[in-house]
Sequence to fold (51 residues):
Amino acid sequence: MTAVIGRTKWTTSLFPDKASGSLLLPVKASVRQAESLKAGDAPIVTIEIGL
Fold:
């Protein structure tokens, strides 16, 4: 799958989190830096799933 935040696009995976019953999206350091993200930020993320 591909994730997009702002102008930055990268290939990634979603990971299940049993404690919260949700999915986690890891955001690479290079993406956080490119988009000036810091802890606590809640960016808009677009997920593209190729079939």
Summary: The mean pLDDT is 95.
